[in-house]
Amino acid sequence: MNALFIAAMIIVVIFGLGFIFSPGTLLGPMGVTLDANSDALARLFGTAIINFPILLWFARKSDNFQFKRGALITIFCYFLFSGICLLVIELKGLMNSMGWSVVILHLIFVIWCGWYLVRKTE
């Protein structure tokens, strides 16, 4: 589970910092253009997701299985729900074909988290 937490931390830090400091640069290769309003919302989104690595850092270091499972459920829900949103955005043509890479990345994390959720032990 710790490998999952580390991988998720790295990915979410990259996207979180990208959304906070340069959302246009992060989303540009996917064919997304931002106006002033969407730029501000993207930055706000970055401040929200940048908290996941903090949770995962503490969960990774914890010996409490319930805490780790709670963190796992949290990131599972994040990757599932944001993956669904990204899939809808991609299917509506709001991102170019590069957007599929982010959809697939979310799917990988959903499967990885789901695998740990169905296991009975750590």
Report on the structure:
This protein has 122 residues and is mostly helical. Helix content is 79%, strand content 0%. It has helices spanning 2-21, 23-27, 36-49, 52-61, 65-91, 99-118. Helix 1 packs antiparallel against helix 3 and helix 1 packs antiparallel against helix 4 (52-61). The chain is globular, with a radius of gyration of 15 Å.
Features of the shown structure:
122 residues, 6 helices, 79% helix, mainly alpha
Beta-strand fraction estimate: under 5%
Distance separating the two termini:
7 Å
Number of helices: 6
Helix-strand sequence: HHHHHH
Largest sheet: none
Mean pLDDT metric: 95
- How many beta-strand elements? 0
Give the helix/strand layout.
Blueprint: H1 2-21, H2 23-27, H3 36-49, H4 52-61, H5 65-91, H6 99-118
Helix pairs in contact: 1-3, 1-4, 4-5, 5-6
Q: What can be said about this structure in brief?
A:
By secondary structure, the protein is mostly helical. It has helices spanning 2-21, 23-27, 36-49, 52-61, 65-91, 99-118.
